[in-house]
Amino acid sequence: MTTRLDRELSLAELEAFGQELDALRQRTLADLGEADARYIRRVRAAVRGCCWTGRALLVLGWFPPTWLLGTLLLGLGKILENMELGHNVMHGQYDWMNDPEFAGRQYEWDIVGPADFWRHTHNHVHHTYTNVLGMDDDVGYGVVRLFPEQRWKPFYRWQPLWVTIQALLFQYAVAIQHLRLDKLVKGRISKEEVKPLARRFGAKLVRQWGKDYLAFPLLALLLGANVLAVLSGNLAANLLRNLWTFLVIFCGHFTEKAAVFAPEILEGETRGHWYLRQLRGSSNLSGGSLLHILTGNLSHQIEHHLFPDLPARRYAELAREVRLIAQRYGQHYNCGTLWGQFATVLRRIWIYRLPATGTA
Amino acid sequence: MALLSLALARHVARGLQPLRRLCASGWLREADVDLCLRLLHPALRLNRVFAQVEARRWVADDMLAIELRCNGNARDWRAGQHVQLYLEQDGVRHGRSYSLTRVTTDGRIELAIKRQPGGRLSNRLLDRLAVGEVIELGQAFGDFAWPQEQGAVLLLAAGSGLTPLLGLLRDALARGFAAPVTLLHQVRRQGQQAFAEELQALAARHANLQVRWAFSGEVGGRLTAAQLAALPGEHLLLCGPRGFVEQACGWWCDAGRGGSLQAESFSPLPVLAEADTGEVRLRFARSGQQVSGNGNASLLEQAEASGLRPAHGCRQGICTSCTCLLLAGTVRDLRSGELFAEPNQPIRLCVSAPHGDVEIDL
Ligand code: FES
Asked: In what residue span(s) does the 2Fe-2S ferredoxin-type domain sit (chain B) (predicted)?
């Protein structure tokens, strides 16, 4: 099913390809400034505005317009915080500002997974080994088989079910990725290794639950408002974010035309080759600026993977040039609408639940 | 617009301990709390030090003293220490270090800023920093201190090296230090003798204080070994550009004068010539190590080679695990060859090689 029509590049071409992308990166870096700083501050203000208004509206109780709007605003705030703010800041995209509030190494986001876990599983593992089988855990997160190259196990037969559960609980899936429970079960790491991590996860979990499901409902109680309305609003907002982030992230690397790689590809990999792998392994979503903001610009997954540390608001302008470069080097630039791309993801999930298909 | 006066805000700041604890343990987001505190007073923050400019006065042709009042988060500051002053420009929060010339118990401090030819930050501060403006500072650092032992003190300053010494001197005299003190301030030309009137007044009031100036721009004006030998004092405190400090230290030691010696210099660290990738000095500030290194290998490798275990991941500039502050010096980006010399900015150790002596926060 992976039917990419990419030209294979000679070593010289690869080198030139890498240099073009490096130059593009350099140009953007040199141009960073006031406007980028203002933008991320605005995003932060929008996050606050959405979350605080949303929570305030939820205190008004079950009255449908306010409950619905409150839930949607809170969900929106959480989505923005997760993607355009947290994800991007934690990539170090705004480190150059030297503002402690946007320091990638320190930012802690509003989801149950501790930021430090994610900085490892995502920034390091996923971005270094993008779509390399056996190295990048993000390929199916260990519960889904998406490519024929992945060895089939009976467990995958029910993967449409696993994926659904994963989508509903996406923030938990992201959080426990770092605990490497699969390795623990197989006895490849010891309990002692997992324990401190589990403890940290537990602490963050308590804080997140304490905030959404205890502190704010209690506050509502004190204000004489409807506790259940607040509780359910928080639950729904978190659910909304889970589904949305799942959707965006699965469309980033598991679409029809996304490629996976055997671990051998890493041997002596040059910078040009690394760029090429990022380009072939990622897929973009086309759409308006609202879509781009809501996805934290992960709709420009290709640009994000080529330049993970450039401010995401620049990806749209970078995309124009990257597309041209890809064309010039005969590489497929994987881009489609959200639903179009998602349909191909669903097809992968459906097809590769069975063993035989992949070998045909 | 401030709901509270700064004096009141300082009291509030003291009572914020529970909030600080909640932020530290991750229950509250510090930035959000700060946003609310700012409504009470623009300088009020939970942990970060902000200060309001209360006065500014020229103390030399090219030096401005500014008086600031801090928000209550300045912890145990002493005159003679340095503090980072942050200023935002083109979206980047730049930090520059200045000496504290005065610290009082009510949270007032004084800094003196010298004009740097071509310095973007110092010129902005000198020309446009207005009374009433709120600026951010870092926590004070440095351990320059007045000698504990009895005996005459010699203070030797060049240029803005006067500022930490002045802070210490004012403190010592106010505490009633009675042994002889000699201060020699070397400046390039007339008009640059910072705080001259105040120093003369101090000398008039305290019989044990002697103040002199030397003008390095004039023939025979520069301090010599013989002149230093003629200056009285058992304990030497020395501050100025690197060349000045190293030379004077050398003379002092060669002369075999006992007592104690404290020196601080502030010139930019030496930078390698373009083609040169020779030996450089690496200072790892947090672990207090100084080692010699080279201009070829990444700082990550060189730190590891000297026994440190910096956090890292990809080792190729992707994951930002190895991000660390460049405190001083110049580094070269191994991917692009770009040079980077902005102090107090984050760099990635795995793709940065020293381009001259560097100091990093590791
Ligand atoms: S170790 Fe990954 S950026 Fe330096």
From this structure: 278-362
